[in-house]
Amino acid sequence: MNKEVIIIGGGLAGLTAAYLLEKKNISSTILEARDRLGGRIHTARPDDHKRMELGATWLGKQHKSLIQLLQELDLDLEEQHLGEKAFYEYISTSPPQLVQLPPNDDPTWRIKGGTDQLIGVLQDRLTQSDIRTGQIVLSIQETDKVEVRTQSTVYYADCVITTLPPKLLADRIDFTPALPKELRQISNQTHTWMGESIKVGLFYDEPFWLKADSSGTIMSNVGPVNEMYDHSDPEKKSFALKGFLNGAYHSVSREERKEIILNQLRKYYGDKVDGFIQYEETVWRNESFTFTDYSESVLPHQNNGHEIFGRTYWNGKLLFAGAETSPISPGYMDGAVESAKRVADQI
After folding, report:
1. What is the pTM of this model?
2. Residues marked as binding for FAD?
3. In what order do the strands lie in the sheet with 137-142?
4. Annotated binding-site positions for substrate
């Protein structure tokens, strides 16, 4: 008799786990709190030609499990354009410098057509799984099976895979019996990848940054935008700049953040930056189904890939997946895929 499996979280780890389990003829029920799938993969699509990656975006040749999955799903890659020159700000007392970039021997790639293509194709491949959005999990209890209670429904299964960031899991879900003390402590001290990030993007009618003998690449020690890149699509139907705003600006308004970004970009490109046609952002700290505040100081990537997440609990009824749980590429899309492979093998 096949096992009944519940997967908590419909992001990359959860959908990949379901996909791999179906290969073993094991169906699953996926419970996702949001009204969309993807988790920290979030591609904004204002219209048919525009797309802005506001979550996970890039991968490299070292991300072997992710690349293997993309090939299996017939998804292609496109190289991230960095160009030959970039604006660089070293200190606030000196103006930005247009500097020559070194040769790019290890290219960075994006998923052609948008990172959300990966989520869509995985969803299409799931023919035996039941996907339910808007399901906020409140508690998990071990009985002769496992009981998972959401705000509206109670589910039962032989085992549960949770793919939530460990800190979020520790804060939001009640476990009966309680999880081991060490696991609770480590979870509370585990950094949530991208949790403090603010990803921003601006669409334009033309890529004026290329005409300025630049590439759209900006590196700044001064900020508040620390990095920015050309985010135009290869077909030249959409032109955009995308970057990272300092996470300290999560508490100001959207309009204030937009003006802060434009003010910095004017230093490099002048008033042309004011001609944007659309502004997009995701403040990940404000995403309650991704981030919850730390009760103590936590360093970037702290406890990501800790071996405690690779164990099974409740006699194999409870397993942990998600980008933070993988010792390989912890915090990245590749780590999410690696964790899904692990739990699929453990069931």
Report:
1. 0.94
2. 137, 324
3. 154-157, 146-150, 137-142, 174-176
4. 244
